[in-house]
Amino acid sequence: MHGFGAGSAALLVAAAAVVSAFAAANTVGFARLTGSPVWALLGGGAAAVLASIILAFLLRRRERRLAPTAVGSLVRHPIAGPIVLSACAAVLSISWLYPGSGRVDPEPVAGLQWVHRPDGSRLALHVSRGAAATQPPVIVVHGGPGVADMAHDAAAFAALATDRDVYVYDRVGTGASTRLADPTGYTTARAVQDLEAVRADTGADRVVLLGHSWGARFAVAYLQQHRDHVAALVLSAPGELPLDGRQPPPGNLVGNLPLREHPCSTAPPKRCASTLTG
Protein backbone atom coordinates (compact mmCIF):
# COMPACT_ATOMS: atom_id res chain seq x y z
CA MET A 1 0.00 0.00 0.00
CA HIS A 2 1.42 3.37 -1.05
CA GLY A 3 0.37 5.93 1.56
CA PHE A 4 -2.86 7.74 2.26
CA GLY A 5 -3.96 8.63 -1.26
CA ALA A 6 -4.55 12.39 -1.25
CA GLY A 7 -5.68 12.43 -4.88
CA SER A 8 -8.23 9.70 -4.25
CA ALA A 9 -9.46 11.54 -1.16
CA ALA A 10 -9.92 14.75 -3.14
CA LEU A 11 -11.93 12.96 -5.80
CA LEU A 12 -14.00 11.26 -3.11
CA VAL A 13 -14.90 14.63 -1.56
CA ALA A 14 -15.71 16.08 -4.99
CA ALA A 15 -17.96 13.11 -5.76
CA ALA A 16 -19.64 13.51 -2.37
CA ALA A 17 -20.37 17.15 -3.18
CA VAL A 18 -21.99 16.09 -6.46
CA VAL A 19 -24.11 13.50 -4.64
CA SER A 20 -25.16 16.05 -2.02
CA ALA A 21 -26.13 18.65 -4.64
CA PHE A 22 -27.99 16.04 -6.73
CA ALA A 23 -29.90 14.84 -3.67
CA ALA A 24 -30.78 18.41 -2.68
CA ALA A 25 -32.07 19.22 -6.16
CA ASN A 26 -34.22 16.10 -6.19
CA THR A 27 -35.54 16.82 -2.69
CA VAL A 28 -36.68 20.27 -3.81
CA GLY A 29 -38.13 18.83 -7.02
CA PHE A 30 -40.14 16.16 -5.22
CA ALA A 31 -41.34 18.74 -2.70
CA ARG A 32 -42.68 20.90 -5.52
CA LEU A 33 -44.33 17.99 -7.32
CA THR A 34 -45.92 16.30 -4.32
CA GLY A 35 -46.12 19.00 -1.65
CA SER A 36 -45.18 16.28 0.84
CA PRO A 37 -42.04 16.42 3.02
CA VAL A 38 -42.10 12.62 3.29
CA TRP A 39 -41.98 12.09 -0.47
CA ALA A 40 -39.40 14.87 -0.76
CA LEU A 41 -37.08 13.10 1.68
CA LEU A 42 -37.68 9.72 0.04
CA GLY A 43 -36.98 11.15 -3.40
CA GLY A 44 -33.85 12.92 -2.23
CA GLY A 45 -32.62 9.80 -0.44
CA ALA A 46 -33.20 7.60 -3.47
CA ALA A 47 -31.35 10.10 -5.67
CA ALA A 48 -28.42 10.10 -3.22
CA VAL A 49 -28.22 6.30 -3.22
CA LEU A 50 -28.39 6.08 -7.03
CA ALA A 51 -25.76 8.80 -7.49
CA SER A 52 -23.49 7.17 -4.89
CA ILE A 53 -23.63 3.80 -6.65
CA ILE A 54 -22.85 5.29 -10.07
CA LEU A 55 -20.03 7.56 -8.90
CA ALA A 56 -18.55 4.86 -6.66
CA PHE A 57 -18.43 2.54 -9.68
CA LEU A 58 -16.57 5.19 -11.72
CA LEU A 59 -14.13 5.85 -8.87
CA ARG A 60 -13.56 2.12 -8.42
CA ARG A 61 -12.62 1.74 -12.10
CA ARG A 62 -10.12 4.56 -11.71
CA GLU A 63 -8.56 3.11 -8.57
CA ARG A 64 -7.99 -0.26 -10.22
CA ARG A 65 -5.51 1.40 -12.57
CA LEU A 66 -3.54 3.00 -9.71
CA ALA A 67 -1.27 1.79 -6.95
CA PRO A 68 -3.21 0.81 -3.82
CA THR A 69 -3.63 3.44 -1.09
CA ALA A 70 -5.55 3.68 2.17
CA VAL A 71 -8.39 5.68 0.64
CA GLY A 72 -8.22 3.76 -2.61
CA SER A 73 -8.76 0.46 -0.84
CA LEU A 74 -12.08 1.75 0.52
CA VAL A 75 -13.16 3.11 -2.84
CA ARG A 76 -12.28 -0.16 -4.59
CA HIS A 77 -14.57 -2.22 -2.39
CA PRO A 78 -17.92 -2.82 -4.17
CA ILE A 79 -19.94 -2.38 -0.95
CA ALA A 80 -17.77 -0.11 1.19
CA GLY A 81 -17.20 2.31 -1.71
CA PRO A 82 -20.83 3.48 -2.10
CA ILE A 83 -21.31 3.50 1.68
CA VAL A 84 -18.25 5.71 2.27
CA LEU A 85 -19.30 8.01 -0.56
CA SER A 86 -22.85 8.28 0.83
CA ALA A 87 -21.49 8.99 4.31
CA CYS A 88 -19.26 11.78 2.99
CA ALA A 89 -22.21 13.26 1.08
CA ALA A 90 -24.33 13.14 4.24
CA VAL A 91 -21.65 14.95 6.24
CA LEU A 92 -21.41 17.64 3.56
CA SER A 93 -25.18 18.05 3.46
CA ILE A 94 -25.38 18.41 7.23
CA SER A 95 -22.57 20.96 7.24
CA TRP A 96 -24.45 23.06 4.67
CA LEU A 97 -27.71 22.82 6.60
CA TYR A 98 -26.24 23.43 10.05
CA PRO A 99 -27.38 26.87 11.32
CA GLY A 100 -24.76 29.53 10.75
CA SER A 101 -22.36 27.31 8.80
CA GLY A 102 -22.98 29.26 5.59
CA ARG A 103 -23.41 32.67 7.14
CA VAL A 104 -21.56 35.54 5.57
CA ASP A 105 -20.78 38.29 8.06
CA PRO A 106 -21.68 41.74 6.71
CA GLU A 107 -19.07 44.41 6.21
CA PRO A 108 -18.76 46.67 9.29
CA VAL A 109 -20.58 49.99 9.04
CA ALA A 110 -19.65 52.94 11.25
CA GLY A 111 -22.39 54.52 13.32
CA LEU A 112 -24.67 51.49 13.36
CA GLN A 113 -27.76 51.81 15.57
CA TRP A 114 -30.35 49.28 16.70
CA VAL A 115 -34.13 49.10 16.69
CA HIS A 116 -35.23 46.65 19.38
CA ARG A 117 -38.34 44.55 18.80
CA PRO A 118 -40.71 43.06 21.43
CA ASP A 119 -39.59 39.47 20.73
CA GLY A 120 -35.98 40.29 21.65
CA SER A 121 -34.76 40.62 18.07
CA ARG A 122 -33.16 43.79 16.79
CA LEU A 123 -32.78 45.56 13.46
CA ALA A 124 -29.51 47.12 12.33
CA LEU A 125 -30.05 50.75 11.36
CA HIS A 126 -27.88 53.47 9.83
CA VAL A 127 -28.96 57.11 9.75
CA SER A 128 -27.52 59.81 7.49
CA ARG A 129 -28.52 63.19 8.90
CA GLY A 130 -29.51 65.98 6.55
CA ALA A 131 -27.75 69.29 6.97
CA ALA A 132 -31.11 71.09 6.97
CA ALA A 133 -33.71 68.36 7.50
CA THR A 134 -37.05 70.02 6.78
CA GLN A 135 -38.63 67.26 4.64
CA PRO A 136 -39.99 63.83 5.67
CA PRO A 137 -37.17 61.31 6.20
CA VAL A 138 -36.47 58.56 3.69
CA ILE A 139 -36.54 54.90 4.74
CA VAL A 140 -34.76 52.55 2.33
CA VAL A 141 -36.22 49.04 2.12
CA HIS A 142 -33.51 46.89 0.54
CA GLY A 143 -33.94 44.03 -1.93
CA GLY A 144 -33.48 40.30 -1.51
CA PRO A 145 -34.91 38.06 -0.34
CA GLY A 146 -32.41 37.45 2.42
CA VAL A 147 -29.84 39.86 1.03
CA ALA A 148 -28.74 43.16 2.54
CA ASP A 149 -25.76 45.39 1.76
CA MET A 150 -25.70 48.09 4.43
CA ALA A 151 -22.10 49.05 3.62
CA HIS A 152 -23.11 49.93 0.05
CA ASP A 153 -26.61 51.28 0.66
CA ALA A 154 -25.70 53.57 3.55
CA ALA A 155 -23.04 55.28 1.47
CA ALA A 156 -25.08 55.35 -1.74
CA PHE A 157 -28.25 56.83 -0.24
CA ALA A 158 -26.40 59.27 1.99
CA ALA A 159 -26.39 61.58 -1.02
CA LEU A 160 -30.12 62.11 -0.43
CA ALA A 161 -29.45 63.48 3.07
CA THR A 162 -29.64 67.15 2.17
CA ASP A 163 -33.04 68.42 3.25
CA ARG A 164 -34.02 65.17 4.97
CA ASP A 165 -32.59 62.31 7.03
CA VAL A 166 -32.05 58.94 5.36
CA TYR A 167 -32.63 55.66 7.21
CA VAL A 168 -31.18 52.41 5.89
CA TYR A 169 -31.89 49.22 7.82
CA ASP A 170 -31.33 45.47 7.50
CA ARG A 171 -34.58 43.51 7.55
CA VAL A 172 -34.79 40.78 10.18
CA GLY A 173 -32.83 37.72 9.06
CA THR A 174 -30.43 39.73 6.90
CA GLY A 175 -27.19 41.68 7.33
CA ALA A 176 -26.42 42.50 10.94
CA SER A 177 -30.02 42.07 12.10
CA THR A 178 -31.24 39.13 14.19
CA ARG A 179 -31.84 35.71 12.62
CA LEU A 180 -35.13 34.17 13.72
CA ALA A 181 -35.04 30.70 15.27
CA ASP A 182 -38.25 29.79 13.42
CA PRO A 183 -37.91 30.47 9.65
CA THR A 184 -41.70 30.59 9.27
CA GLY A 185 -41.50 33.94 11.07
CA TYR A 186 -40.19 35.63 7.93
CA THR A 187 -43.51 36.92 6.66
CA THR A 188 -44.82 40.04 4.98
CA ALA A 189 -46.74 40.84 8.16
CA ARG A 190 -43.50 40.72 10.15
CA ALA A 191 -41.72 42.87 7.57
CA VAL A 192 -44.49 45.49 7.79
CA GLN A 193 -44.36 45.49 11.59
CA ASP A 194 -40.59 45.98 11.53
CA LEU A 195 -40.90 48.78 8.98
CA GLU A 196 -43.42 50.50 11.25
CA ALA A 197 -40.91 50.20 14.12
CA VAL A 198 -38.27 51.89 11.97
CA ARG A 199 -40.79 54.60 11.05
CA ALA A 200 -41.53 55.16 14.74
CA ASP A 201 -37.78 55.37 15.41
CA THR A 202 -37.50 58.30 13.01
CA GLY A 203 -39.88 60.31 15.19
CA ALA A 204 -41.67 61.52 12.06
CA ASP A 205 -45.36 60.97 11.47
CA ARG A 206 -44.91 60.65 7.70
CA VAL A 207 -41.95 59.23 5.77
CA VAL A 208 -40.84 58.61 2.21
CA LEU A 209 -40.52 54.89 1.45
CA LEU A 210 -37.94 53.77 -1.09
CA GLY A 211 -38.50 50.09 -1.87
CA HIS A 212 -35.88 48.43 -4.05
CA SER A 213 -36.50 45.14 -5.88
CA TRP A 214 -37.86 42.60 -3.35
CA GLY A 215 -38.18 45.39 -0.80
CA ALA A 216 -40.83 47.03 -3.00
CA ARG A 217 -43.26 44.30 -1.93
CA PHE A 218 -42.95 45.32 1.71
CA ALA A 219 -43.07 49.03 0.93
CA VAL A 220 -46.36 48.53 -0.92
CA ALA A 221 -47.72 46.28 1.84
CA TYR A 222 -46.82 48.94 4.41
CA LEU A 223 -48.54 51.63 2.33
CA GLN A 224 -51.72 49.56 2.21
CA GLN A 225 -51.81 49.29 6.00
CA HIS A 226 -50.30 52.63 7.07
CA ARG A 227 -51.03 55.05 4.25
CA ASP A 228 -51.36 57.94 6.71
CA HIS A 229 -47.67 57.52 7.57
CA VAL A 230 -46.47 57.60 3.93
CA ALA A 231 -45.65 60.96 2.38
CA ALA A 232 -44.34 59.43 -0.86
CA LEU A 233 -43.54 56.03 -2.32
CA VAL A 234 -40.60 55.29 -4.61
CA LEU A 235 -40.29 51.83 -6.19
CA SER A 236 -36.91 50.96 -7.69
CA ALA A 237 -36.75 47.95 -10.04
CA PRO A 238 -39.77 46.23 -8.48
CA GLY A 239 -41.03 42.84 -9.57
CA GLU A 240 -44.66 41.80 -9.70
CA LEU A 241 -46.44 43.20 -6.68
CA PRO A 242 -49.37 41.34 -5.06
CA LEU A 243 -51.75 44.24 -4.40
CA ASP A 244 -54.75 43.32 -2.27
CA GLY A 245 -54.04 39.65 -2.98
CA ARG A 246 -54.08 40.11 -6.77
CA GLN A 247 -51.13 39.72 -9.13
CA PRO A 248 -50.84 42.76 -11.44
CA PRO A 249 -50.35 42.35 -15.19
CA PRO A 250 -46.64 42.57 -16.15
CA GLY A 251 -45.51 46.15 -16.57
CA ASN A 252 -48.53 47.62 -14.80
CA LEU A 253 -47.74 48.44 -11.19
CA VAL A 254 -50.08 51.38 -10.64
CA GLY A 255 -53.20 50.17 -12.42
CA ASN A 256 -54.18 48.06 -9.44
CA LEU A 257 -54.08 50.92 -6.95
CA PRO A 258 -57.40 52.64 -6.21
CA LEU A 259 -57.88 55.20 -8.97
CA ARG A 260 -59.16 57.87 -6.63
CA GLU A 261 -56.05 57.71 -4.45
CA HIS A 262 -53.12 58.17 -6.79
CA PRO A 263 -52.33 60.77 -9.46
CA CYS A 264 -51.09 58.25 -12.01
CA SER A 265 -54.49 57.07 -13.21
CA THR A 266 -54.68 59.69 -15.95
CA ALA A 267 -51.16 61.15 -16.05
CA PRO A 268 -48.60 60.23 -18.76
CA PRO A 269 -45.88 57.78 -17.60
CA LYS A 270 -43.12 60.42 -17.29
CA ARG A 271 -45.31 62.76 -15.32
CA CYS A 272 -46.51 59.86 -13.18
CA ALA A 273 -42.95 58.87 -12.33
CA SER A 274 -42.02 62.41 -11.35
CA THR A 275 -45.16 62.69 -9.23
CA LEU A 276 -44.44 59.50 -7.30
CA THR A 277 -40.85 60.47 -6.60
CA GLY A 278 -41.73 64.01 -5.59
Taken in chain order, the helices and strands follow as HHHHEEEHEHEHEH
- How many domains, in number, for the residues? 2
Strand content: 5-15%
Mean pLDDT: 82
Strand count, sense and closure of the main sheet? Answer: 6 strands, mixed
Provide the CATH architecture of the largest domain.
3-Layer(aba) Sandwich
Tell me the CATH superfamily of the largest domain.
Alpha/Beta hydrolase fold, catalytic domain
Please write the CATH class name of the largest domain: Alpha Beta
What is the structural class? alpha/beta
Radius of gyration: 26 Å
How far the N terminus sits from the C terminus, by CA atoms, comes to 77 Å
Q: In terms of per-residue confidence, which ranges show pLDDT below 50 for 5 or more consecutive residues?
A: 250-278
Number of strands: 6
Number of helices: 8
Q: CATH fold name of the largest domain, please?
A: Rossmann fold
Overall spatial form: elongated
